[in-house]
Amino acid sequence: MAAAEGEKKIISEKFKESDAKNRYYEGKEGVTLPEGLSGKVLYYDKTWNFTVLDIGKKKGVLPSGVMILHRGTDIIGKVRIATVDDDCSIADFMGDFKKKEPKAGDMAIP
After folding, report:
1. CA 15 to CA 21: how far, in whole Å?
2. Which CATH number goes with the domain that contains 88?
3. Domain count, the chain
């Protein structure tokens, strides 16, 4: 019985991840990210306009999740998660919603 419950949990997680990827590529609304989630910017690529965050699958991040980047009380921009690894994720800026260039150490919250 425990094995069946374990398999059910794995299948459910895979479904959520797959659904989130589809939503991202179809440009649909983001997924709900875990309450209390926060992370930091590790890297920003000015040429391709993406950022690497220090949070990933282990923290519940899913593709298509939307996060706000901020430095102190200043909002930097809004990003949508594109790719998620175990401990980090890559996020693209949404449209023209970027007020400043992010720097390593800037905070990310849903």
Report:
1. 10
2. 2.40.10.340
3. 1
Expressed as residue numbers, the domain containing 93 is 2-109
The two three-digit tokens of residue 79, written as one number: 């990003």
Total-model pTM: 0.74
Alpha-carbon span 9 to 92, nearest angstrom: 29
Residue with tokens 């007020």, as numbered in its chain: 99
pLDDT in tens, the chain (110 residues): 666 676 767 766 766 666 666 655 555 566 889 999 999 999 999 999 999 999 999 999 999 999 999 999 999 999 999 999 999 999 999 977 778 899 999 999 99
Measure the CA–CA gap between 43 and 40, rounded to whole angstroms. 9
Name the token pair of 42: 């590790």
